Amino acid sequence: MSNISIVIITYNEEESLEKTIKMARKLSDDVIVVDSFSTDKTIDIAKFYGATIFHRKWEGYSKQKNFGNKQAKHDYVLSLDADEVLSDKLVKSIRNIKDAPKFDAYKFQRTNIFFGKKIRYGSNKNESVVRLFNKNKITWNGDLVHEGLELKGASIGKLDGELLHYTAKNTNDYLLKSNKYSTLFAEQQFKKNKKPNFIKIYISPVFTFINEYIFKLGLLDGFEGYFLARQSANYSFLKYAKLKMMYRNSKR
């Protein structure tokens, strides 16, 4: 069908995976799912849509994704999270370049959708991301959270269309993700021997809210903008508070 493989990492994604994998199949018959032993219907959904499934103990986002890249049949890989859905326009754009890609990687717009609403302002506004790339030249870095691609020296093209990112279904879902990511951040900083200070713990959350809600115009997104600004501030506090407790408990 194409010379592009698609890699999706999963763990208990039954509520979101079907939309993701259904659109992915429009681009490729080589869909790789790297699953961390899901206990819901994730595997059943992946099998139904003809994905090749690998079960792998969770070792962090980058390692899971790099493992998936190695299993891909083709040189070019489109990396998706289970809560990201390709738009029809983006599918068309990728089809137009798939037979003869001119760049090492391609970027396109990712639109964050929160509680069913597209976010226009704040740090959660539309962003440009690189997700389609030559796996022989580009890999994911080793960061535990907010992983990124090593793009130094890579040529990057741009594609039309949106990657729709359904960031959270409800408040509980968002808070669970925030708690998870703040823990991963603290663990990563602890390994690097980075210590929190007074400003990071006490001042940063206040500045984060003001920056998100006022300077980045989060207020224009209504209730969702206020909620996201508040939670960004809370996340800022949590990640450094957890880091402080790690040092206190370790007596390092």
Question: What brief labels describe this structure?
Answer:
single chain, 252 residues, alpha/beta, Spore Coat Polysaccharide Biosynthesis Protein SpsA, Chain A, 2 domains, nine-stranded mixed beta sheet, 41% helix
Describe this structure in words.
It is built from 7 helices and 9 strands. The chain has 252 residues and is of the alpha/beta class. The chain folds into 2 domains: 4-167, Alpha-Beta Complex (Spore Coat Polysaccharide Biosynthesis Protein SpsA, Chain A); 171-250, no CATH class. Strands 1, 2, 3, 4, 5, 6, 7, 8 and 9 form a 9-stranded mixed beta sheet that branches. Helix 5 runs parallel beside helix 7 (222-250) and helix 6 (198-215) runs antiparallel to helix 7 (222-250). The mean pLDDT is 94.
> What name is given to the CATH topology of the largest domain?
Spore Coat Polysaccharide Biosynthesis Protein SpsA, Chain A
Write the element-wise H/E pattern from the N-terminal end onward: EHEHEHEEHEEEEHHH
Q: List the uncertain runs.
A: none
Task: Please tell me what the overall shape is.
Answer: globular
CATH superfamily of the largest domain: Spore Coat Polysaccharide Biosynthesis Protein SpsA, Chain A
Instruction: Provide the helix percentage.
Output: 40-55%
CATH architecture of the largest domain: Alpha-Beta Complex
Q: Report the total helices.
A: 7
